[in-house]
Design goal:
The chain is mostly helical and 240 residues long. It is built from ten helices and two strands; from the N terminus they run H-H-H-E-E-H-H-H-H-H-H-H. It has two domains: 10-73, Winged helix-like DNA-binding domain superfamily/Winged helix DNA-binding domain (Arc Repressor Mutant, subunit A); 85-238, Up-down Bundle (Four Helix Bundle (Hemerythrin (Met), subunit A)), CATH 1.20.120.530. The protein is 74% helix and 3% strand. The chain has a two-stranded antiparallel ribbon. This is HTH gntR-type domain-containing protein.
């Protein structure tokens, strides 16, 4: 089975091809997916594209990656959720989310202080790369669902990078736990384009504060970013 790849949305097209592969080969849960190299050979695309496609499919819970063994089909993709369903989910889970966000706020304020003392320019460059990928995401070329999944991955990467530069094992461990707890929340939040735009602006402000060397400004922008995130959730509930 060959695939003709267009220049636009190559990752989305790769995901579509992989979904067709699952259907045409009648894969059952637990069946092995083709390797990255096999997809590259069959489709004539680069490995980084395939890796990103599989990363998104894992976030969508279509596949599961097992280290040293490969990628396996997990289950059929859930239909795209509507705005009203997102609002209902927020209402049901708002108390837990607010509790997680309180801890997240404390952890990330400590992390950015430590990171600004211990980090070099390379980690700021990494944050800028993530920000640029988000900017490209806003330019279009992805389905709404895939756009939301990518933004979830970028947002996780952005915040985990700051914590990792703190070089504090306990903070890194807590951040990972919080990331796992907030996975569904992020997935729901970033299904709405306005939340992606707001997060992008917040990330840019955080980077600017870090680059200035002003710890207080960096803390303030992180506080505002997390407060905006909770405000986004409440706004969706009120409007639906």
């Amino acid at each position: 089975m060959k695939m003709k790849i267009e220049k636009i949305s190559v990752v989305d097209q790769t995901i579509d091809w992989l979904k067709e592969y699952i259907e045409e080969n009648q894969l059952k849960e637990g069946d092995r997916m083709p390797t990255e190299q096999e997809v590259c050979n069959m489709c004539g695309i680069g490995r980084s594209t395939v890796r990103e496609a599989y990363r998104m499919m894992q976030a969508l819970k279509i596949t599961e990656s097992v280290r040293g063994k490969g990628v396996f089909f997990r289950k059929q993709e859930k239909p795209q959720v509507e705005r009203s369903e997102i609002a209902d989910w927020f209402r049901e889970n708002s108390e837990n989310i607010e509790n997680y966000m309180e801890v997240r706020n404390a952890v990330e304020l400590m992390a950015v202080r430590m990171a600004m003392k211990k980090g070099d320019k390379k980690w700021i460059e990494h944050l800028n790369v993530i920000s640029e990928k988000t900017k490209e995401l806003l330019a279009g070329g992805h389905t709404r669902q895939n756009r939301g999944v990518l933004m979830t991955l970028y947002d996780e990467e952005f915040h985990q990078k700051i914590t990792s530069v703190s070089k504090n094992p306990l903070l890194i461990c807590i951040e990972k736990t919080i990331t796992d707890c907030l996975a569904d929340y992020r997935n729901k939040v970033f299904m709405l384009d306005e939340n992606i735009e707001r997060a992008y602006r917040s990330h840019c402000a955080i980077i600017e504060a870090i680059q200035s060397g002003d710890v207080s400004a960096a803390e303030e922008t992180i506080n505002e970013h997390l407060a905006d995130s909770l405000a986004d959730m409440k706004m969706v509930q009120e409007k639906n």
